[in-house]
Each structure stands twice: as C-alpha cells, then as structure tokens.
Write a structure and sequence with these properties.
Strand content: 15-25%
Number of strands: 20
Bound molecules: thiamine diphosphate, magnesium ion
Largest sheet: 6 strands, parallel
Oligomer: single chain
Number of helices: 22
Distance between the termini: 67 Å
C-alpha cells in the first residue's frame, strides 16, 4: 500500500517504541505533524525547541528508550543545538525530525531554508559535530537503508543523536509501506564475545588483591548491574565509589559505599584509593576530568587496573589496564561472582574495610563538615529530608551537582541524573518534565536561580499537560560558581555574575503552581509536611547567601 513519507516516518517511530515526541510545529514540518494526529505517539508542545530537546533527553534517560523531538526548518532546528549536543556528549539515543523547504526551492532563498545552497544556512554542517548520523533526505528510493542506519545507531548499546531532515515535498511523496518491514526496530541481542580468559584474569586479580576498590559508573546502571555489583561488594567486602553519573550504582547508605569520586566531592574515595587500594576495578565508568581529579596520577600509581565497559572506545582510553573487558557489566560481574563462588577456596574477606571507612568518616567529619554542611545547612537538611521521606521511587534531575554529590546518598531505588553531557544550565526543568512523561514517579528538578531563568517557561509545558513536577531552586541572586571563581581567583573583581531576581512567589502564582519559600531550617519541615510531591507542581525556593561558596578543594 502507498503511504505518505510523513506517515512512514511516524509509523517507523511507533515501531521504535517512541511514545512521546517533543517539539514545536512550523509550516515546513506540518505534514509529519498531520500524520502524528492519527498516531499513538503523543506530540508535546514545548515553549522553546531547546526545551524540547532537553525533554527528549530526559525522557530517554528515564525510560531507557529512544527520545524524540521534532521541529520546523531554520530557527526550529537551530534552537535544538544545545540539547542535541548534550545528547551527543551523553551518548543518548535521540531521534530528531526536522522539516526543510521543498527541494525545488533549494538555493533560491526560501523562507527559513537551511539547505546550505545559495547563501542559505547549512543545517547539515551545523549538526555534523553533534550527531552520530545527520541526513537531509532528498529522495525516497533509499529510505529503508537510511532508516536502518538510523536504527543501528539509536538501538546500539552506545547510541547518540540521529537527525533526519525531510524537505516539505519529500514528506508528501508516496512510498510503499512495505519499506517498514525492511527496517530494524528492535535492538540486536548483545552477546558477550568469548571473554572467558579476561574474566578469569579479572577474578584472579580480585582474589589476589588486598584492598580492591570498585569504581562504578553510569554503565553499571544502564546494564541493570546494581544487584550483582552490590552482591560482589558485600561478598568480598569491596568498597565501591562511583562517578557522578554512577551515583546509586550501589546504595550510597551501604557500609561499602565510599561516596562519589571526583573534584567536587568530600574526597573519601580519593583518600581510600590513594592510601589503601592495590586494585581499581572500573565498571562502566569513564575517567573524565571531574572523576579523575584532572587525571591525577596518584589514583593509578602502584596498583593494578581492571576495566569492564560495553563501549569499546572507553577501554583504556585514558589509562592502561591490566585486564580490559569489552562486555555487558551485569553479565561479566555475574560471571565473576559465579567463578568466585565456585572457586573452592574460601572467599577472601578484606576485613580492614570497615575500620578504614570509619577512620575516613572521622576524617570527613573533622575536615569537611565545615566545608559543606555548616556552610549550607538548609541544603544539607533538604537532602536529609529527601532521603528520609523517599528512600526509593523518585527521580532527580540536577543542574547544580555539587551539593547533591556531597549531601545526597542515592539509594538503588532512586534515580539521580546529574547534568552531564555538555553541562548546560537550563537542562534540569525540561529534562525532568520529559522524564515525568516516561515515569510516573515523584520527579525533582534541582537548580540555581541563574539556570532557572534559562528555562523556567517550560514549567508551563508541565502545567499545560498536567505533569506533576517539583522544582527546588537555590536563590543566591548570583551565578554562584562564577562568583566563587571571581572571588578566589580574580581578587573579588566581580563581573556579570550578580543579578536581581523576580518575585518567585508571584511567578509561581502566575503559572498556577504551588510555592514555598525556605529561609530557615524549620521551613523545610513545613515543606515536607505540606507539599504534595507526587501530584503537585511545586516551586520550592531556598534562600542562600551569595558570599557563601561551596569551598571544595580541587586536589588533595
Ligand atoms: C548554557 C551554559 N552557560 C553558561 C554556563 C557556565 N556556568 C556554569 S555554572 C554557572 C552559574 C550558575 O548559576 P546558578 O544557576 O544561579 O547556580 P549557582 O552556582 O548560583 O548555584 C554558569 C554561568 C553553563 N554551564 N551553561
Ligand atoms: Mg545562583
């Protein structure tokens, strides 16, 4: 049967399991919107295309499925850039559909033309560096191949954004719907290559080590490896630290949790690794600037290194490993566990862990308490109450990062999504909205007042679609991180960091959402007593002093 290309695109997305597509229409993409009218996919109208791309990213993060967004040509597409860049850096599966002027107009100066011809902007070139695949689809005879290529990227264990731009006339062309049967829309089952040798070597390394430490990353969570990693840690008494994105890979309240590893953290994990550890086992964790303390060699010195990652490109990217295994973390760790159990020898217990952790804890209280807790009592208490009231079942999108990294112990039943990718301010609110569409659980966006003002109109997207949302905003009337740097590194020469805030109570009222202000600790008890975190849309404003800086030490 013949169907329009616009309908084929929508059916392709349905088969990919896409339930929501975030965007904004324009004349050049209306045929696809018209096909969405009859689809099971719900089209969500954002306030700005950047918001739409962040929502699609949040939806993908929460659901583990493909996120999707749709815009018109020209400014619709250019407004997507930061969200797409974020998904690219974060290796998120994002399908972006954009419109384009009809091909017979190319090069003549069409309205919003983005063909790159005759002085028009070149959308293809613009997105080249931030997509895994990017195509202006000018003809239909290779549609099956082209969509298969898109599927291969979107469904791979290491995906990225795919942008398909359809000229207006192409969207309305007729094609045979049998094309759909030639397109892959389910992930290939991933079989671990024959890893028996490296897995045996990894098991042996672990049995030999006196003080191994697991560095768990987001790859652990993506593979669903939390339970096996926890079992391994508890069975062998191995402490676990995580990258920021890996927070929650094991329960951070666990006796074996060293908290997160990285420049803005307390430094327990750093201390344990540099002073005690003789084996580091990286499980789906990158070793970026933040996690590695700028690739501090003390972390690697005098110890063996093992690494497991499903992304082959991550293996030995920035360090040399004694054992490097390309494979699914859950499967590999399960295999290691089975081998250790079958080993016959008694399982080695690393008995000094508890006392070392205790010593570090004392250390932490003595050295760091005034660095963080005492300086930010309201935020510390907020996270304590959050943990107490929600031991599981919430998802958090956090643009601020520094406070949560230190104050918030993530349990395996909660999901914490720090603003990673390109670390763009303005991500938390739309990403949380996208996630709340995918997952009906209490959802939090946590961010500063600077970031809030970048994306706050998207709150109305939540309101328009009855999406419950909890926004926690830190009001310090400044770009705090910038002010801190200008104070500490530029002799208090403040430039372009401070600003005057609107009255957020009125703002919330105008949006029709609930509002609570926190000036003192007792106000937080009221917040947790009164707020409907499940079904309400709430703005919680926490007042901070602009001259109180999170005084983390970058190197120890
Ligand atoms: C899109 C974007 N622009 C600029 C920056 C650089 N930047 C990092 S933190 C920061 C200040 C954030 O201020 P605010 O959101 O109020 O948080 P605070 O540090 O005050 O808690 C800025 C401008 C960024 N990360 N993203
Ligand atoms: Mg601020």
């Amino acid at each position: 049967m013949k169907i329009q290309v616009s309908e084929l695109i929508v059916k392709y997305m349905e088969r990919l399991g896409i339930e929501y597509i975030f965007g904004m229409p324009g004349a050049h993409i209306l045929p696809v919107y018209d096909s969405l009218y009859d689809s099971s996919i719900q089209a969500i109208l954002a306030k700005h295309e950047q918001g739409a791309s962040f929502m699609a990213g949040g939806c993908a993060r929460a659901s583990g499925k493909i996120g999707a967004c749709i815009t018109t040509a020209g400014p619709g597409a250019t407004n997507l850039v930061t969200g797409v860049a974020n998904a690219y850096a974060d290796k998120q599966a994002l399908l972006i559909i954009t419109g384009e002027t009809s091909t017979h107009i190319f090069g003549k100066g069409g309205l919003q033309e983005s063909s790159g011809e005759g002085g028009a902007i070149d959308q293809d070139a613009l997105f080249k560096g931030i997509t895994r695949y990017n195509k202006v689809v000018e003809r239909t005879d290779y549609l099956a191949n082209l969509l298969n290529k898109a599927s291969n990227i979107l469904l791979s264990p290491n995906p990225g954004p795919v942008l398909l731009s359809f000229p207006f006339n192409v969207q309305k062309e007729l094609v045979d719907d049998s094309i759909l049967n030639r397109i892959k829309t389910k992930p290939r089952s991933y079989t671990v290559p024959d890893e028996s040798q490296p897995v045996a070597a990894l098991t042996e390394l672990m049995l030999q080590a006196e003080n191994p430490v697991i560095v768990a990353g987001y790859g652990c969570i993506k593979s669903g490896g939390q339970a096996v990693v926890t079992e391994l840690s508890e069975m062998m008494h191995i402490p676990v630290t995580t990258s920021l994105k890996g927070k929650g890979a094991i329960c951070e309240q666990s006796a074996y949790s060293l908290g997160s590893l990285g420049v803005t953290s307390y430094g327990n994990a750093y201390q344990y690794i540099t002073e005690k550890s003789d084996l580091l086992i990286f499980l789906g964790a990158g070793f970026n600037e933040r996690t590695s303390y700028l690739w501090d060699e003390n972390l690697m010195d005098n110890k063996k290194i093992a690494q497991v990652d499903i992304d082959e490109d991550q293996l030995e990217k920035v360090f040399k490993a004694d054992v490097a295994i390309h494979g699914d973390i859950k499967e590999i760790v399960a295999e290691v566990l089975a081998r250790i159990k079958a080993n016959g020898k008694p399982v080695k217990k690393h008995n000094n862990v508890a006392s070392t952790l205790k010593a570090l804890h004392v250390n932490k209280i003595e050295q760091d308490a005034d660095v963080f807790e005492a300086r930010f009592p309201l935020i510390a208490k907020f996270y304590q109450l959050l943990e107490k009231n929600f031991s599981e079942g919430i998802q958090i999108f956090d643009d601020n990062i520094i406070f949560a990294q230190n104050f918030f112990n993530v349990s395996t039943g909660n999901r914490y999504h720090p603003n990673s990718g390109v670390s763009s301010l303005g991500n938390a609110i739309p990403a949380a909205i996208g996630a709340r569409f995918a997952e009906a659980k209490p959802t939090f966006a946590i961010l500063g007042d600077g970031g809030f003002q970048m994306c706050c109109m998207e709150i109305m997207t939540a309101v328009n679609y009855d999406i419950p949302l909890n926004i926690v905003m830190f009001n310090n009337a400044t770009m705090g991180l910038i002010r801190k740097n200008q104070s500490q590194q530029y002799n208090d020469r403040y430039i372009n960091c401070d600003f005057t805030n609107p009255d957020y109570a009125f703002l919330a009222k105008s949006f029709g959402i609930d509002y609570l202000r926190v000036d003192k600790e007792a106000d937080l008890d009221t917040v947790f007593d009164k707020t409907d975190f499940h079904n309400g849309t709430n703005l919680i404003e926490i007042m901070l002093d602009k001259n109180t800086f999170p005084n983390y030490v970058t190197k120890r």
